[in-house]
Amino acid sequence: MQIPEKTAFDGSKINKERKDMMYNAKKLRKYFPFYMFLLPAIILVILFCYMPMEGLIIAFKDYKMARGIEGSEWVGLKHFQALFSDPNFYRVLGNTLKISILTLVTTFPVTILFTILVNEIASRKFKSVVQTITYMPHFLSWVVVGTFVYQLLSPTGGVVNGILVKLGILEKPLYFMAQKDMFVPIYLITNLWKTTGYSIVIYLATISGIDTTMYDAASIDGANRFHRILYITLPAMFPTMCTMLILNIGSLVSVGFDPVFNLYNDATYQTADVISTYVYRKGMVESRYDFSTAIGLFQNVVSLALVMIANWFARKANPEYKII
Amino acid sequence: MARQTAKVKMKQSTGSRIFDICNTLFMIAFCITIFIPFWDVVVRSFSRAQDISYMHINLFPKVWTWDAYKYCFQDNEIIMAFFMSVLRTVTGTAIHAIVCCMAAYSLTRTDMPFRKFITAVLLIPMFFSAGMIPAYLNMKRLGLLNNFLVYVLPSGFSIYNTIIIRNYFFSIDKSMEEAASIDGASQVKIFTSIIMPLSKPVIATVALWQMVGQWNAWFDNMVYCRRTASLTTLQYLLRRMLDSLTANTSTASGVEAIGALVDTNPDTIKAATTILVVLPIVAVYPFLQKYFVQGIMVGAVKG
User: Fold this and answer.
1) How much is the ipTM here?
2) Model confidence over B8-53: pLDDT tens digits?
3) Which of A103, A118, B130, B153 lies 20 to 30 A from B255 at CA?
4) DSSP string of chain B?
5) Could you tell me which chain B residue has the CA closest to the CA of A222?
6) How many CA atoms lie within 13 A of A284 on its CB side?
7) Distance (Å) of CA B222 to CA B87, B151, B279
């Protein structure tokens, strides 16, 4: 058993140290049930979070299935060199950055605007109905959302094509999902459709903390509705806005796998492929385990660095902010 | 609400009233936008296959029919997948709730030796994960490929939920626990008969999150259990239907794509399956929304 650091050796007081050790042994016994309570969690974390980390070394090896992770030959940075001279990698990295920046630029203002508008609804009942309906898509999987989008935009039976053809905007139906220029707009709109309601709930939680007497006081002082939004509601949202913005910047190089995977297809790889989907295709489909582990490692390390930096800024901007 | 009454008493300006009207209309439009895809699927699922064409846009099916649903309920694959989804949701949620609650209870002991170290061990994976391929190789090594356990064990613990539960445990009055302890109750007894019953709201919230997560999960099915038909979940079945649609784009890419799109699954059956996937969530959602919102508050305030 390890000796806890609290019993650090203090030369002159051997007796005290022994007492401490006895005390600690007692303490450990007292806490035995609690360690047992923690055991399942620790086992699961070791099995499914720490054990896979050993597999990261294949990013530096020539992985052969038959020889296993340990038995495969070391090749140093070969895969990383291959990665940085792979034009596909730069395309994928570019797509990732483009999609995450555009997502940030669209979701952020829309969420703030919609939150304020929802908050301005006078009837409490209507307000809760709006929230209930708009929050709903958050609980759907991206598979379902992908199905929705494919069906709405389908050239054979899609509502969108039907309307556009009837209005004469399109001569004949267009297969939107197979147009590579269309992917990013479709992705952004779908993302807004799915996430806006959820973000509104988060921001409204902040707004509900505002002291309502502030609004009354402002009204008496002659502030109209617009003034009240501008000088009371918005500033109250500001800390949450900062935190969200910074956290989003932290995930700049990690566009989620699910949304892209369920909206793209081989006709749109050019513009839709992001790092995570590229890793999936190189690794799971083409079985280039070592190479795609290297890509994944690159992404995770950059993400970690960005999260650390973002976190540091978040703490500077908002002293109350902490991750845990 | 003080604000509402004050507003009523005050004379509203015309501008403010116009704003209210526009805002209401805008919100109705917003809700309709969210609602359209749902309605589209409902209409499709009740339509006859031959009625679905971009030339007809109808608010309601031309002819109401249960054909697609009848097909679904006769299709063994779909029924099996539905039960597999239910099974993984129930099992996965139970494991998750138990593991997280136990861990959370231990983490409330602020003077437990090694507490900081253990917390760090549990926290680090939140910031750095090995990634897709190492995870896959690890599952292979553990013999979990094509195994039901791969659905319920890796998601069995989440530090985020554990911390939310722990924060709730902290708010429970310590004196009750002390009284029970003096009466000779063991730690296990205190946990099961005092702490757990008092924490129902937070446990419900976390369990609901996990339920939705389990019901919606499909990636583990695709990557780890692709080859075992009996382990196919409803989500993955739907995903495969989506695949059968997108696969056709490879032949159609670039040029005129319309004619080439021949779908192996009729739209109506796909729509009915989508309804089967969405319905359980939509059905329980209005009743449980309270918990979801509550959960966010817990997370937002204390997380």
Assistant:
1) 0.85
2) 445 577 888 899 999 999 999 999 999 999 999 998 888 887 777 6
3) A103
4) -HHHHHHHHSPPPHHHHHHHHHHHHHHHHHHHHHHHHHHHHHHHHTS-GGG--TT---SS-SS---HHHHHHHH-HHHHHHHHHHHHHHHHHHHHHHHHHHHHHHHHT-TT-TTHHHHHHHHHHHHH----HHHHHHHHHHTT-TT-THHHHSTTS--HHHHHHHHHHHHTS-HHHHHHHHHTT--HHHHIIIIIHHHTHHHHHHHHHHHHHHHHH--HHHHHHSTT-GGG--HHHHHHHHHHHHHTTHHHHSSS--TTT---SS-HHHHHHHHHHHHHHHHHHHHHHHHHHHHHHHHHHHH-
5) B10
6) 21
7) 17, 11, 22
**Residue found by looking up tokens 């299709």 in the block:** B75
Give A66-88 pLDDT, tens digit per residue. 888 888 889 989 999 999 999 99
B257 close to A178: Cβ distance less than 8 angstroms: yes
> What digits encode the pLDDT tens for the residues B131-157?
899 999 999 999 999 999 999 999 999
Q: Cα-Cα-Cα-Cα dihedral of B188, B297, A322, B94, to 10°?
A: 40
Query: Position of tokens 């604000």?
Result: B3
Please give the backbone phi and psi of residue B59, each rounded to the nearest 5 degrees, phi first: -75, -25
> Residue B286 burial by CB count (10 A; 0-12/13-18/19+): exposed, middle or buried?
exposed
- If one counts every other C-beta atom within 10 angstroms of the C-beta of residue A192, the result is 19
Distances in whole angstroms, Cα of residue A297 to Cα of each of A18, B74, B138, B157: 46, 46, 16, 23
Residue B222 in contact with residue B236, Cβ under 8 Å? yes
* Token pair 């099992």 in the structure block, residue: B91
Name the residue among A162, A212, A296 with its Cβ closest to that of B54. Answer: A162
Element containing residue A74 per DSSP (H, E): strand A73-74
Element counts in chain A: helices (H) and strands (E):
17, 2
Number of A–B residue contacts, CB under 8 Å? 312
Q: How far apart are CA A27 and CA A22, in angstroms?
A: 8
Q: Which of A52, A68, A125, A127 is nearest to A296 (CA)?
A: A52
Residues of B in contact with A54 (CB under 8 A): 134, 138
Angstrom distance (rounded) from CA B20 to CA B8: 13
Other C-beta atoms lying within 10 Å of the C-beta of residue A15: 8
**Set of chain B residues whose Cβ sits within 8 Å of the Cβ of A284:** 132-133, 136, 223
| CATH numbers and ranges of domains, chain B | 14-67 (no CATH), 76-302 (1.10.3720.10)
Proportion of chain B above pLDDT 70, given as a percent: 83
b/e per residue A72-98 (b: at least 16 CB within 10 A): beebeebbbebbeeeeebeebbebbee
How many C-beta atoms surround the C-beta of residue B112 within 10 A? Answer: 18
Question: Chain A partners of B41 at a C-beta cutoff of 8 Å?
Answer: 147-148, 151
Name all domains of chain A by residue range, CATH numbers in brackets. 5-60 (no CATH), 88-317 (1.10.3720.10)
Of A26, A19, A28, A21, which Cα lies nearest the Cα of A5? A21
The DSSP element (H or E) to which A62 belongs, if any, is strand A61-62
Bridge partners of A74, per DSSP, are A61
Shortest CA gap B127–chain A (Å): 6
Distance CA A180, CA B249 (A): 12
